[in-house]
Amino acid sequence: MSEEVQRVFEAIDALEGIADPTERARALGEVLKGLPDRNKRLKTARQAAVAELLARPGASLRSVGAELGISFSTVQDIVKGYSGSGSKRPRAAGAE
Length: 96
Fold this sequence. Notes:
By secondary structure, the protein is an all-alpha fold. It is built from four helices and no strands.
């Protein structure tokens, strides 16, 4: 886990440690309120980073997947902007 990721998780853990329940509830509420927008930004940033990896000479979905520790199909989904269960992905041609 990178140092940056560790700091994010430590900050979240610190919120749970706020002694005053009113302040803890307010702080957690502020974070929860901001998560949807932050989540979209993180997905967009990840998509750009994966696209950058794929733009390298000789890069493939499989090589990028191996580098990131994910499947080639997950790399493909990230690049296309898909996330979740797959229920919103377009059906393949001829699929029922």
